[in-house]
Specification:
The structure holds two protein chains of two kinds. Chain A is mainly alpha-helical. Chain A has 21 helices and two strands. By secondary structure, chain B is mainly α. In chain B, the strands form two sheets. Chain B has a two-stranded antiparallel sheet. Chain B has a two-stranded antiparallel ribbon with strand order 3-4. Chain B is globular. Classes of the chains: A mainly alpha, B mainly alpha.
Chain lengths: 498, 482
């Protein structure tokens, strides 16, 4: 049993990668074969992630399931994995969403299916790897490597303007990440290690404020693009609109969480002084993201673009939560990450379902779907409510906790962020009214079919999770509650610098 | 006289002569002979490689201090000869097309390599010059090898005129160095520079050294001495281009590296730095607007040279390690990419002619992912690796250069370099985009050709798998340099 426990993390990371490699040698099979295989591996990984979750001892906390394998002794790059509560939940989210990607694409993707399945398996591997990595440089490697498959996913299976979007995605993220790389190298040169556990213990009081500010800025360049925060967010709507449904699910559900994860795992513990120094800036940018993002979402004509802007706004809650440095704020930010991962993925799947049937994402072409697709309308209502942040859904828990956290620090920011929630209700409810209610003026909608079994199954599962986490958030919050309180007290009670 | 130190060169050289002799005496111009000559050349290369491996462990100078031998030099020689072997392996198709001149082609490849090897092991500026000229003269011929093609002749003439100018500058520089230091021996020059205070070194000597360096920078096509590279790359036959981009580039960069390593040219580090930044800039911006894939690769190689020079400019032991590491990985990436160029051909004429703008237009690669998925995947791995995306080999080489630069206090330059490297990702991505996102075109067809295909796939696998064995490669370089 001990052996299994020890290796489960590496299996989670490498099972999809190895399957992808083996899949390369299959040729001329039916599409359903590839999807079936992808789904099988995805579900196997999901079961493993549940096993990881159940065997993670959250009372004890800290990094568990550690495993080290030397790669490059010269600069001490090592394959060093281990998970804390935050990583466990993020890995769970990843493993949950990947099989969903295959199921939702089963009908819509008919071209180059083998490559599609391989790309998503590779993405899953890399993302789990970056969540699990305890070596800063290895985190960077996994983090950056996700660009390659995602670039191909947007570029090959995307919409008309896919090439522009894929370039924008790649170049923006790469340009941010090179600063991160320089930050890692500088940090390595000063501390002689990239091991995150060692770094956390020595960085606490190691660097004077001006060094921390430099490092923080270099790390920030990468994470802020990934989150995305206000001035760097423009790649996200383009990427979402052009990406296939599965691509949007992965992008919104997991990839943009890597940025917020980076803030919690690296920026705060390593550069606490600089984090406090920059918190005002980040509050400002996040507020702009929340309010500006909501207003822009309000005026969108394309459903996907609208949900993409709502992602920008929702991630604003994550960043203000993190940089409030309060227990509730950090906890709420993580909760918001998970709930946004579920809700926005679900909404993107809804858009995908409509697009599969009607080949349009424009709001003005739709209307009155509720009368023809009652089941679908019900699920869409649940997700809309989740996105609005209605009590009883997971969206409420995340936003509420973040705002409470910020309220303790800065009442002005908290109330403006609260305004953002109201705006969120405006655009989401208006969207629901225009798409699902109102009159049918599109003839195609008259013959539209309701959800089939697979779609029903996925949406049902997601809806259950969203409501379940809304009613009993402690199911998942136990994993990171202690950790966020430790992080908060770590940042807030810094001993004075010598 | 220790001939044992020169046995790899002697083997290659006599092999080249033997091939020429066989050609004259057998006087058979059929495919059988060409195949035989090719096979023979491969055996010679294998022998030379074996002899080069044998020279490991000897740490001495010979021939009146003309020849230098130590583990690092043997290691570099091994890599040069191994690269030559691969180039000969992939040029079989070209050998069949040039019919009459097959043995000359093989002989020239080998003689040019001998020139490179002599430059690498030279401990004397005159021998260095001779090696350089031996290589350069063979290269002028090789660049214009496709006699029927106007562009190939243009490439040869352009390369010849500019190359001989550079050789002239080199020779002039050597004479200045000799005049002001009294010797052409690198060890003696090094002693002289180390003994004198930095501000007391005579201007004439520095001037001479700058000229030597300038000529070398011309040969490795670093900006602002890069003007010839895109034209020559575009005009030269693909197989020759593969030779240019791997063996020649690697051996000249290594010669420059060893020259500065042996002679301890701290005073010139500023020049390296300026040229490095200029090359990185030219490499990333120049390539964006190129439509011809060969020209694009020429600019990309300028950018890569910039990174190597950035490491060289700090002139520390660790920076030499990272420069060699970078060059090895870069050579393997270019081996794969250029090997790909040798197997594309026009569907109408079935030729791989540089005058045919269509087949080397990068849009001709459109839809390669559909028609030839394995090659497209391998080529995109090489492109992503060139762009420095982890976890591919190109990332580690760039990472190490950046680390070296920061360690030597060049942080602002390192930041500029990585920003430009993000810019250069743009055009590498364009190749991937064309292969994967565009609809197939009928401008080119891929020749079903085992050798080249094998080499491309091997290079791609190396790029992916290096992460598992990076320690081995790196530590061996570090051991050799100490």
């Amino acid at each position: 049993m001990n052996v299994i426990k020890f290796d489960i993390l590496s299996v989670l990371i490498f099972l999809p990668l190895i399957s992808a490699f083996l899949l390369m040698f299959f040729n001329k099979q039916k599409n359903s074969f590839y999807f079936g295989l992808g789904c099988f591996v995805g579900v196997a990984n999901f079961i493993l992630s549940i096993a990881l979750m159940t065997s993670y001892n959250w009372r004890e906390g800290g990094y568990q399931f550690q495993q080290i394998f030397k790669i490059f002794s010269e600069i001490d790059i090592k394959y060093f994995v281990g998970v804390d509560g935050l990583a466990v939940t993020m890995i769970f989210l990843t493993a949950l969403l990947t099989p969903i990607c295959y199921i939702v694409s089963y009908k819509s993707i008919t071209d180059r299916v083998k490559e599609f399945v391989i790309a998503f398996l590779v993405i899953e591997s890399l993302v789990i790897g970056s969540f699990a990595s305890l070596d800063l440089l290895f985190f960077y490697i996994f983090f950056e490597a996700t660009l390659i498959p995602m670039f191909l996913v947007i570029g090959i299976w995307g919409g008309e303007n896919r090439i522009y979007a894929s370039y924008k995605f790649f170049i923006y993220t790469l340009a941010g990440s090179v600063f991160f790389l320089i930050g890692i190298i500088l940090l390595y040169l000063y501390t002689k290690t990239t091991d995150i556990i060692v770094l956390t213990s020595i960085c606490k009081n190691y660097f004077p404020i001006n060094f921390q500010v430099l490092f923080f800025a270099l790390f920030f360049a990468s994470f802020a693009v990934k989150v995305p925060m206000f001035p760097f967010h423009t790649w996200l709507p383009d990427a979402h609109v052009q990406a296939p449904t599965a691509g949007s699910v992965i992008l919104a559900g997991i990839l943009i969480k890597l940025g917020a994860f980076g803030f919690i795992r690296y920026s705060l513990p390593l550069f606490p002084l600089a984090s406090q120094y920059f918190s005002g800036l980040i509050f400002t940018l996040s507020l702009i993201a929340i309010i500006y993002g909501s207003f822009v979402a309000l005026m969108q004509e394309d459903m996907k673009k609208m949900i993409a802007y709502s992602s920008v706004a929702h991630m604003g809650f994550v960043t203000i939560g993190i940089f409030s440095f309060t227990h509730q704020g950090i906890e709420g930010a993580i909760m918001q990450m998970i709930s946004h991962g579920l809700i926005s993925s679900a909404l993107f799947i809804c858009v995908g379902i409509i697009y599969d049937r009607l080949h349009t994402k424009k709001i003005k072409d739709l209307g009155g779907l509720a009368s023809k697709m009652p089941n679908f309308a019900m699920f869409a209502m649940i997700f809309t409510m989740g996105s609005v942040g209605l009590p009883g859904t997971s969206g409420f828990v995340g936003e509420f906790l973040s705002i409470i956290g910020v309220f303790k620090v800065n009442k002005m920011v908290a109330s403006l962020a609260g305004l953002g929630v109201v705006l969120g209700a405006c655009y989401m409810l208006w969207l629901y009214k225009r798409v699902w209610f109102s009159e049918i003026h599109n003839q195609q909608i008259k013959n539209i079919k309701d959800l089939d079994f697979c779609e029903f199954f996925i949406l049902f599962g997601l809806a259950i999770m969203i409501i379940g986490l809304g009613i009993a958030p402690s199911l998942i919050m136990n994993f990171f509650s202690e950790q966020s309180s430790q992080l908060s007290s770590f940042v807030l009670t810094l001993p004075p610098l010598q | 006289m220790k001939f044992s130190l020169l046995i790899p060169e002697i083997t290659l050289f006599s092999g080249a002569l033997l091939i020429l002799m066989l050609d004259v005496f057998l006087n058979k111009k059929n495919e059988k002979f060409q195949f035989f000559a090719h096979f023979f050349a491969l055996i010679i290369c294998g022998l030379a490689l074996a002899f080069a491996v044998k020279t490991f462990g000897s740490f001495e100078t010979a021939f009146n201090d003309m020849i230098n031998s130590r583990a690092l030099i043997s290691f570099i020689k091994c890599i040069v000869i191994a690269l030559l072997t691969f180039i000969i392996l992939i040029s079989i198709r070209y050998i069949f097309t040039i019919e009459k001149y097959s043995s000359e082609y093989l002989a020239l490849l080998m003689i040019a390599t001998v020139g490179g090897l002599l430059m690498i092991s030279a401990n004397d500026l005159l021998l260095f010059y001779l090696g350089l000229e031996l290589q350069a003269l063979s290269l002028y011929l090789l660049a214009s090898f496709n006699v029927k093609s106007a562009r190939s002749s243009e490439a040869g003439i352009k390369y010849f005129i500019l190359g001989s100018l550079a050789s002239g500058i080199l020779l002039f520089g050597i004479s200045m160095v000799y005049g002001y230091s009294g010797s052409t021996n690198l060890t003696l020059i090094k002693d002289l520079i180390e003994k004198t205070k930095p501000d007391e070194i005579s201007v004439g000597l520095i001037f001479g050294l700058i000229m030597v360096v300038t000529a070398m920078l011309f040969k490795i096509s670093a900006a602002p001495f890069h003007m010839w590279a895109p034209d020559v790359y575009q005009g030269a036959p693909s197989a020759v281009l593969a030779f240019f981009g791997t063996v020649v580039k690697f051996s000249t960069v290594m010669a420059l590296l060893l020259l500065s390593y042996n002679a301890n040219w701290q005073i010139l580090s500023k020049i390296f730095l300026i040229v490095a930044m200029a090359s990185i800039m030219v490499g990333s911006f120049g390539a964006i607007f190129q439509k011809n894939i060969k020209r694009l690769l020429a600019f990309s190689s300028i950018g890569h040279i910039g990174f190597v020079l950035l490491a060289l400019s700090s002139m520390q032991k660790f920076s030499y390690i990272s420069a060699i590491f970078y060059m090895i990985i870069y050579s393997i990436i270019s081996l794969g990419t250029f090997a790909f160029l040798t197997i594309i051909r026009s569907p109408q004429t079935h030729e791989n002619d540089a005058t045919d703008d269509k087949i080397f237009n990068i849009n001709s690669l459109a839809g390669l992912a559909k028609t030839n998925p394995t090659l497209a995947l391998s080529l995109s791995i090489l492109m992503f690796s060139s762009a420095g995306i982890p976890p591919l080999a190109g990332f580690f080489s760039k990472f190490y250069i950046i680390k070296t630069a920061i360690l030597s206090g060049l942080l602002p330059y390192a930041i500029i370099a990585v920003m430009f490297s993000a810019v250069s990702a743009f055009y590498y991505l364009r190749i991937v985009k064309i292969m994967y996102f565009d609809q197939p075109s009928a401008h080119i067809e891929i020749e079903d050709f085992g050798n080249s295909r094998l080499v491309i796939i091997l290079c791609a696998i190396f790029n992916v798998a290096l992460i598992f064995s990076i320690d081995i490669l790196f530590n061996s370089i570090a051991n050799f340099i100490n």
